[in-house]
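Below is how a single chain appears once it has passed through the pipeline. First comes the sequence as given, then the structure the pipeline wrote out for it. We keep one example in the README because the format questions we get most often are answered faster by looking than by reading.
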Amino acid sequence: MTPLDPIASDDVAGPAPGPARLALRPLGYLLVGLVWTAIFVVAVLLWVGTLVYVAVDDSVDVGAMLDRVASDPAEAVGFALALPLLAAVMGAGAMFLLPTASFPLAALSFVYAMRALRPSYAGERLSFTVQAGAGQTIGLPTLHSVALSLLPVRRSRVTDALVRVYAAGWTPTARSVLAAVPAGVGWLLAVAAVSEGLPGPARVACGVLAVVLVVVSAVLVVRAVRARSAADAGGDGRPVTALDPDERRARLRELRRRRDARLGGR
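Resulting structure:
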């Protein structure tokens, strides 16, 4: 089970919010959502924006760059070393981790902002925070646990889906990260497809291969995330919606037991 497993959030209610918090939390969640939306837009622009820039700027000439690389062994070595690194950074980082780490938080914030306006949610907290152990999340290494916030107190199909994407971005598996690397290769080919200096057929071929690699990567990432969700669910891997009430209670007890054992071992 991961720290973001939505099944484990059923017992996190906490005290009812006071009048001041009730009045301010719609605006607070809205502002938080806007911040995470801005981060998501920046993350997308890292790879979409560069393609647009290369397409409109005639000074970016991939053909001339390849000619220089072919004529200079030192540049060829540097080019060969840089391409895999760039593919990994763009595929796993800019195209997978950054969007999946930011979009769910933005969407969850807007969900809570709407819930904060409804009287039926006035007597309860809308979100809570859990602590993930050091090394379990993306980002710089830490010596202490990392707070993962904006988890839903009251679950729905929408919040469950968003939390699974949240987990994919903030507590990724090696399988999902590696699955995103082909998309980075596709991005490199897309740069070649929209740039100047290559023959028309070569640009078309690069464009087609770019689309294929991005689609393949997306399929692999989805499979990796689903496999992780099934493993986190425990038991036979069936989703919670497929269980009867007794099976849900049994699974929840098992997940709580595993969570308590994990927290007690830190």
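Confidence is low (pLDDT under 50) at residues 6-11.

See the next section for the split statistics.
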